[in-house]
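Run: sequence + zinc ion -> complex structure.
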Amino acid sequence: MNVCSVCGNEIRGHGFRYYGGRCACSDSCAHKLFFQEIIENKKDYAIIKGTVYKDGGNVESPRHPEWLGFEGRVHHIRYFNGKDVITNNLFYIAKVDDEYKDVLKDNAEFQWEV
Ligand SMILES: [Zn+2]
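>> structure
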């Protein structure tokens, strides 16, 4: 029997599978799991002006820049902890929901002068 990792309800049918094999029984539980994963791995994400991004890792001389995040556009991210990242492979993940604003505060900003 599959149980929703968010609300504990039994999942009939296939449910929704998410990161780490965790299941959610409904769209709203899947949404919570989605944010739970981001909260647990906060350090892997850049949160800028209430939007979550993930750096897929800069790709040197990409053959297919259109396959990269933002089609290979270069972003310069300055994390508030001092880390500076220039990447051509940044992905938009999500807008932070109001209910997660306190736990998912901005941790970085864009620097445009690359
Ligand atoms: Zn559920």
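>> summary
The longest helix spans residues 27-40. Strands lie at 2-3, 10-11, 16-17, 23-24, 45-48, 51-55, 75-79, 84-87, 90-95, 108-111.
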